[in-house]
Amino acid sequence: MAETAFPANLAVSPEQVRAARAVLNWSPQELAERARVTPDWLHEFEQGREPGDDLDPGEAERLRRVLEEAGIDFLDAGEASSGGGPGLRLKQKGGYIAAENLSSANDV
Predict the structure, then answer these.
(1) Is 16 exposed, middle or buried (0-12, 13-18, 19+ CB in 10 A)?
(2) Which residue among 11, 45, 48, 87 has the highest number of C-beta atoms inside a 10 angstrom radius?
């Protein structure tokens, strides 16, 4: 994967945004509207280019917040993931019982 010119402390990486959109089946236009960014800004961000002359970290933060509200759980590098790098997963829905907590008492 190509490295981006973005600082490591951004709220979310371009790769995570593209992956989250795919998981949610959202178009770039839909995410741009929900996050209150322009489609052009989102396109540049997702391509790993700094959108415009002044990068506003608030825009990346809005992207992250909107995606989290839609059920995306972002993983930072080193968190539980098979590759150890940054990633994402869908949050569990209510009523989920982790495998280690399954028993005859909660068998439905």
Answers:
(1) buried
(2) 45
pLDDT of residue 87: 65
Distance CA 74, CA 88 (A): 4
* Cα within 13 Å of Cα(50), Cβ side: 10
What pLDDT digit, counting tens, does each position of 41-100 carry?
999 999 988 766 555 668 888 999 999 999 988 876 655 655 555 667 667 665 555 666
Instruction: Record the pTM.
Output: 0.66
Residue 98 — φ and ψ, nearest 5°?
-60, 150
Give phi and psi for 5, each to the nearest 5.
Answer: -90, 5
> What CA–CA distance (Å, rounded) separates 104 from 67?
36
95: left (phi over 0), alpha (psi -120 to 50) or beta: left
- DSSP sequence for 41-83: HHHHHHTTS--SSS--HHHHHHHHHHHHHTTEEEE-TTSS-SS
